[in-house]
Amino acid sequence: MLWEGRFKKEIDSKTNDFNSSISFDKRMYKEDITGSIAHCKMLAKQGIIDKEESEKIVEELKNILSDIENNVLEIDSNAEDIHMFIESELTKRIGSTGKRLHTARSRNDQVALDIRMYLKNEIKEIIKLLKELLNVLIKKAEENTQTVMPGYTHMQRAQPITFAHHLMAYVEMFLRDIQRLEENYNRTNIMPLGSCALAGTTYNLDRNYVQDLLGFSDITKNSLDGVSDRDFAIEFLSNVSIIMMHLSRLSEEIVMWCSWEFKFIELDDAFSTGSSIMPQKKNPDITELVRGKTGRVYGNLMGILTIMKGLPLAYNKDMQEDKEFIFDSVDTVKICLVTLVPMIDTMKVLKDNMKKAALKGFINATDCADYLAKKGIPFRDAYKTTGILVAYAIDNDKTLNELSLDEYRKISDKFDKDIYEAIDLKTCVMNRNVIGGPAPEQVQKRIKEVKEILNIQNN
pTM (2 decimals)? Predict the structure, then answer.
């Protein structure tokens, strides 16, 4: 152990296993080496170590990176963590010169640097995947601006909308997710190296030089906060939890839509599974797994919040637990996005079934009340009259469209033959031509705006 000088006994093997983080933090080997190269160049620039020694260290760090990526060097599972493995391997290769690398640096600010660098890359990747999801949702929306379906409240048929309008609601959600991640990136893009263990160092460091080498936008301004801050990670897990919540809501609707009770869509065979005993089954397992994995990501957020809530400044070993929460959430949201995109792209929209569902449930009742209100009847009275009309239609097993004009006039003499056009589903949708409404004109306008935001090329 690099810290064993203070100790007279070797660490207990079980304690070593318990203390070790190499099994999961090894995925940050590239960030650790990249950060070390920048630190070493700065040490030479400031005259803290010789230029020749710096060049030798940098060259060998690059060799180590290449060997790991080409499977020439296997990361030692017995190492305490990825930082000590890299440093030990460096010293093994170039001798005592390698020991100079850790001058004016602690593992506390080293790990803070690595996790920020790792998250910066992953935030970019998740944003890219979200844009791919938006692309396929927009594509489906463009194909369905005239596809009328029932909109729901309380899972009861409520008012007519289009399938495009429904999909574009999810587009808005995922756009906000991207915005949150971009803001999260800005707060992650702060360089902590130079904070050392907690109180900085007596060496004349040039932290801004390291910042520039590593592509950070700024440096941390308090060494205690530099090593103990995990706000950016908590914010990331919160953002990913919201993304998963949105994916779960979409998944829940897909599960319902492909059931026989709805039959609004049909999933491609490549993205469905069967039953071991019921040959007729075609199960939406992917979307069910997304729902389930959402709870797992929520747990990661609660885990890191619980760890951080009672920690005194500065670094504490409890904070080692942050990485498994982060890594698991990264992996989970990425696999969900990667799997959902082609599933949505290949799903078949059953337009006729959507229309049939829209014709039932009196979802044009509000339009009927609006019709009366436009004839001069106060809306509350028009609402009551329409309610009586709906009750009458239910008793006679008819829809509003199937009632005769005489039946309408028995309830109110304000009804005329133009009522049928007013309550036609397409009219109901077309007339909701307000910004944000389901009218095809409005939906197409928003699709164009979002495509411009995302720089999606028109086909």
Answer: 0.92
**Catalytic one among 23, 217, 259, 275?**
275
pLDDT of residue 459: 42
Burial bucket for residue 184 (CB in 10 Å: 0-12, 13-18, 19+): buried
Non-local CB neighbours of 375 within 8 Å, separated by 6+ positions: 414
In a domain, 301, yes or no: yes
pLDDT digits (tens, 9 = 90+) for 239-279: 999 999 999 999 999 999 999 999 999 999 888 777 777 76
Single-letter amino acid, residue 441? E
CA dihedral 320, 326, 329, 334 (to 10 degrees): -140
What phi and psi values does residue 192 have, to the nearest 5 degrees?
A: -95, -10
Split into its structural domains, the chain has a count of: 3
13, 96, 154, 276: which is the annotated catalytic residue? 154
Q: Check whether residue 143 and residue 255 sit in a common domain.
A: yes
- Does 166 participate in catalysis according to the annotation? no
Q: Tell whether 253 and 317 lie within a shared domain.
A: yes
Supply the range of the domain harboring residue 90. 4-103
In the 8-state DSSP scheme, what is residue 347? Answer: P
269: left (phi over 0), alpha (psi -120 to 50) or beta: alpha
With beta carbons less than 8 A apart as the criterion, state whether 331 and 356 touch: no
User: Which of 42, 70, 103 corresponds to the end of one domain?
Assistant: 103
Residue 246 among the catalytic residues: no
Average pLDDT value over all residues in the chain? 94
